[in-house]
Write a structure and sequence with these properties.
This protein is mainly alpha-helical. Helix 2 packs antiparallel against helix 7. The protein has two domains: about 1-35; about 50-145, no CATH class. The radius of gyration is 27 Å and the shape is elongated. Mean pLDDT is about 75; it is low at about 40-50. It has helices at about 1-25, 30-50, 55-60, 65-90, 95-105, 110-120, 125-145. It contains seven helices and no strands. InterPro entries: CARD. Keywords: Coiled coil, Signal. This is CARD domain-containing protein.
């Protein structure tokens, strides 16, 4: 009887240690997984934060003035508030209302930089320079990640 208990306890300990080692090993993230994750994140960033770019960078490069940067930041706050209100409105819609809303919105697509120009925060020339630099930065990051 004592041999059976000893055998059961030993077997249980052996199995639990094997499962424990396996669990520890599967929690490690391999460098390959990290690089894939980082690459995917880097591709998304420019698109998602296109309008949230670092305005101080453009001041340092002499593309815009500090005054324009302050106006831009204020515009960003208002823009974010509008987006939040729009999201709340969309969440309250039914599936059909959302479909109609997005169909209509596709036709009314706005360019963030056109809005900045329209509000006379920056000139069209400045907007074009900034767009060009953002595109170049994005292309450079894509090349680095390959």
């Amino acid at each position: 009887m004592s041999k059976l208990i000893t055998l059961t306890v030993t077997g249980g300990l052996l199995l639990s240690s094997v499962f424990n080692v396996f669990a520890v090993e599967t929690n490690n993230i391999s460098p390959v997984t990290l690089s894939v994750k980082t690459e995917a994140e880097s591709v998304k960033k420019p698109h998602r934060k296109f309008y949230r770019c670092d305005v101080e960078q453009w001041v340092e490069q002499g593309i815009i003035t500090k005054e324009q940067a302050e106006k831009w930041k204020e515009f960003n706050k208002k823009y974010e508030e509008q987006r939040k209100k729009e999201l709340e409105k969309i969440r309250k819609m039914t599936k059909e209302e959302r479909r109609v809303y997005f169909e209509k919105k596709k036709q009314q697509k706005k360019d963030y930089f056109d809005e900045l120009v329209k509000e006379k925060i920056i000139t069209q020339e400045q907007a074009d320079k900034i767009k060009e630099q953002i595109l170049q930065n994005h292309q450079n990051k894509e090349k680095e990640n390959r």
